[in-house]
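Summary for the steering committee. The consortium agreed at its last meeting that each partner would contribute one worked example illustrating the joint modelling workflow. Our contribution is presented below. We chose a case with several input lines so that the handling of multiple components could be demonstrated. No manual editing was applied between input and output; the record is shown as generated.
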Amino acid sequence: MRAYRVVAMARKEFVQILRDARSLAIVVLMPPVLMLLFGYGVNLDTSALPLYVFDREGSQQSQDLLKHFQSSRYFDLVGTVDNYPALLRAIDEGRCRIAIVIPPDFSKKLNAGGPVGVQALVDAIDDNTANLAFSYSESVVRGFSAGVQLDWAHRQGLAGLQYPLNVQSRVWFNEELQSRAFIVPGVIALVMTVIGTFLTSLTVAREWERGTMEQLISTPVQPSEIMIGKVAPYFLISVIDSTLCAAIAIWGFRVPFRGNWGTLLISSALFLVVVLAMGYLISVVAKTQLTASHISLLTGFLPTFLLSGFIYPIDQMPVVLRAFTHIIPARYYVSILKGVFLRGSSIGLLRGDLLGLVGFAMVVGTLASRSLQKTLD
Amino acid sequence: MNNSGPAVVVENLVKRFGTFVAVNHVSFEARRGEIFGFLGPNGAGKSTTIRILCGLLSPTEGGARVSGFDVATQPEAVRQTIGYMSQKFSLYNDLRVIENLRFFAGMYSVSARSLSERIQWALEMAGLSDHQRDITGILPGGWKQRLSLGCALLHRPSILFLDEPTAGVDPITRRQFWDLIHQLAEGGTTVFVTTHYMDEAEYCHRLALINRGKIVALGTPAELKRGSMPGELVLLECEPLAAALGLLRATPGLLDAAVFGSVLHLNVPRAKEAIPLLRKLLLQSGIAVTRIEQIQPTLEDVFVSLAGTHAEAAKEES
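What follows is the complete predicted structure of the assembly.
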């Protein structure tokens, strides 16, 4: 391998990226745009569900129950109505996600020792939110009825009675339970995949498409020199862009960074080798930019987005899909990113994921380095 | 490198793509410092042959040596000694002129010492010294071709392969291009060039006429014109042309008749005897003859005559 051929190739490739408005836009704009999109746009936290109430009794006790809802940070009481059709309209028009109906004999039944049914109507178009609304409202009602039972026991002279069990929870790693902290570190993997696999996949394909490959392979340049020269600029750009993403995550979104920079660098370099080799391999095989971009979206971007645990946790996937995630390199890197950022995991704790990346780097790297033949056959 | 032998030796070369035979048992040699032309219509197998010689395609059968190196087993050694200009423009349109030159200088490992001298040389040769900062894509076709040539010559190759270098280029630029080729040959470079322009073939030292993957004639342009046609050539200017062509093609004793612009070229065994007979025949059919005389065949006549003979031979074979 001759260094000046690699340098000449890398320089040419770099100039071409700078001259191509589309590539340049992706390189410059993608990191901040994706960060903002996932930092602000995607919020999986269900806080303050809009709540409507139809209190058919209006007693002291029914108001007490409503206060429990109001004081919960999961609900936001946005309206009260005095008839059932108005309540249904509020749900139909999307003014609330959940509506509570308190029966007219609420306090009477309660004082008689119950049971009392409180109706909750939930807009279940978004099933995830609906489930949360159900369980949050259940826990509010359960808390209220436990208080009622305790009051009753006190009145019966059973002083000093307490709940037999209670949970003392400590939230670790993502103390504020923000989905942003969970998602944002993964954007680094997404940015690397787009630059490393998608942009790189166009480079060799472009040469086949424009006929420049024929001229190129008539020179003494070696396939390894072509490969390294071609991916080098994308390596550099990925490093800059992912550093930018990390900076935005840490200083812009205040995502905690508890781990070791060295661990982050090593795993990032490994993942970059994987995505760049994939992009290059696709490029050599595809021969047209259109095919290359389709293959790289299907094998790079989509799996990284959907199956890496970036947004959708892998343990919550069906068994088959969960098994499938093992052949997606981003899975290992996203897991490392979350570990390094939030958990402060040491390199030893992450060795399984690191080994996964090493394996992929070797396999895909070897395939890529053997992919280009200097022939038109 | 072996400096004594011929620049290119091709022996019994065959290239098949599936069932299609693109190159069919071709053998020839090109000497050092020679302009060797490969003349034939589109699809005759010219580009396939040149690509095999540059190590870009592998031969199905037979073999070829370029600068003494086997193209199938030592393609990298071949590439060190050759320059190649493909049929389609294949430099980078989005790079500047100077960037293309620097890039190919890098690919050909032009030494740092001679780099700027070689690039200056190529710019001057291509007449692009005042345009080195231009984006290549905006240059006119002829300029691009000269730049391609410059890029292919940066490493002083001993053999230059040009695949239809003047296709789609205006006549003046074509002329300049051939002047460049002659200068290179005088400097000792072997130039292997394909073309389908008959007039260009006259500029070559030696020519191979290729048709349907086979070499149908080989020699200097003068040899080909002298020796390759079976009879003599008669030019006929008459009215109406189409009627005359139909009549003559049906006439026994006439070897061939073909339209050349506004006249007919007739291939006859002996011109002196044929001309009076032809006059009589045409007069009887009411065709007005304005001119009839013996002429020297051009390469095009030779080619049409040989291609026709081979087509008939092929028909008889099958």
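Chain A has a mean pLDDT of 89. The CA atoms of residues 274 and 333 of chain A lie 10 Å apart.
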